[in-house]
Design brief:
This protein is mainly alpha-helical. It folds into two domains: 3-128; 132-167. It is built from five helices and no strands. It is rod-shaped, with a radius of gyration of 29 Å.
């Protein structure tokens, strides 16, 4: 399931949404923790690469076409090294993933608050039936029942294991 599907709320299946919520929280908190771990590993690789390249530049300045070993020249050689650039790019990608998943975590927590408010609205009869005069009440009930049954059939038939039995 995509993140957009995970944060979407089915207003007609609040209990199902509540059952899924702890699993979603676990999923996105775990993904975020894994991303933080990967970012930290990428940062360690970057730092190690920097140190190794700097050591190499100081040990073999001719290899880097340096006449004189100065701090500025060493820094320039290290910064322009392809190995360092690749390690830094890997670190930036890992950092971006952490930021994306931090936002996803927030989205899942926001869904929890939205679900709480949906339940409060439901309990306050916000979604109650409107008052209908006697003549039209039967017609409205039949139409609404047919639409609810149609929606339930559609949802059941979408799941290969569940199919409504035909009577």
């Amino acid at each position: 399931m995509s993140f957009k599907e995970d944060i979407d709320i089915d207003h007609y299946a609040l209990e199902e949404e509540w059952r899924k919520q702890p699993t979603l929280v676990d999923k996105y908190f775990t993904l975020h923790a894994d991303a933080v771990y990967d970012r930290d590993k990428a940062k360690a690789r970057y730092d190690l690469t920097l140190a190794e390249v700097e050591k190499d530049v100081r040990a073999y300045p001719n290899k880097y076409e340096m006449d004189k070993v100065t701090e500025a020249a060493v820094k320039a050689a290290v910064t322009t090294s392809e190995t360092v650039k690749k390690a830094y790019q890997g670190y930036l990608e890992a950092k971006k993933q952490v930021m994306v998943l931090a936002g996803a975590k927030e989205g899942i927590l926001t869904k929890k608050y939205a679900l709480e408010n949906e339940v409060k609205l439901f309990l306050a009869s916000y979604f109650s039936e409107p008052a209908i005069s006697g003549n039209h009440k039967k017609e409205v009930v039949e139409t609404t029942s047919a639409k609810v049954k149609e929606a339930a059939d559609k949802k059941l038939n979408a799941n290969g294991r569940l199919k409504r039995k035909k009577l």
